[in-house]
Amino acid sequence: MTHEANNISADEALMRLREGNARYLQAANAAGDVSPALRRATFEHGQHPYAIVLACSDSRVIPEAIFSAGIGELFVIRVAGNVVDNHQLGSIEYAEDHLGCNLVVVLGHTACGAVDAALHHEPYGTVKFITDEIADAIGDEQDEAAACLANVAHSVRRVEESRKVRADEAEHGLCVVGALYHTDTGEVEFLD
């Protein structure tokens, strides 16, 4: 059922992300290939991303730029607070099963407005769905930096738990890792 894809290992995908972030730290402009030729090729032959990135919707967090990636290289899912529900899980499952991705990176970031809202503001409207999920993730934590890390760890666990129901997980070799983007420096810290 898996679509012909890059079919690279999770370790190789993680190495590409690390190298891309290193290039980003030195760049003045985005470095990914967005050329007309690549747009045409991905239109004609489909997408073949090497990694799935679940990131926050924050306008300062642009996974393709952060990892120096171009069109078709990353399967990006963005939602405020990088929280996980069935919509995000379904997107991950699609990218794994149909696009051959073996790596999921849950990318949180410093100075996250959604984490701040869960810590310091009264939730309202449908934003409450997000802040409640984050509040559950961070528990009694009051330090914003530690809360951001706890929120990433919670989303990583949610993705990992959803994958345990797959009988063929070992065959696919899906790896889920957490990471924190430092909005002040641009560095991505991959978490153990």
TrEMBL record:
In its UniProt record, which GO terms are filed under biological process? carbon utilization
PANTHER family for this protein? CARBONIC ANHYDRASE, CARBONIC ANHYDRASE 2
Cofactor note as given: Binds 1 zinc ion per subunit.
* Cofactors that this protein relies on: Zn(2+)
Q: What does this protein do?
A: Catalyzes the reversible hydration of carbon dioxide to form bicarbonate.
Task: Say yes or no: keyword Metal-binding present.
Answer: yes
**Protein residues bound to Zn(2+):** C56, D58, H109, C112
- UniProt catalytic activity: hydrogencarbonate + H(+) = CO2 + H2O
What family does the Swiss-Prot or TrEMBL record give for this protein?
Answer: Belongs to the beta-class carbonic anhydrase family.
| Keywords (A to Z) from UniProt | Lyase, Metal-binding, Zinc
Q: Which SUPFAM superfamilies match?
A: beta-carbonic anhydrase, cab (SSF53056)
Which GO MF terms does the UniProt record name? carbonate dehydratase activity; zinc ion binding
- In Swiss-Prot or TrEMBL terms, this protein is called carbonic anhydrase
> Which N-terminal stretch is annotated as signal sequence?
none
Q: Which residues form a coiled coil?
A: none
| InterPro entries membership | Carbonic_anhydrase (IPR001765), Carbonic_anhydrase_CS (IPR015892), Carbonic_anhydrase_sf (IPR036874)
As recorded in UniProt, its EC number(s) are 4.2.1.1
Q: Which domain of life is it from?
A: Bacteria
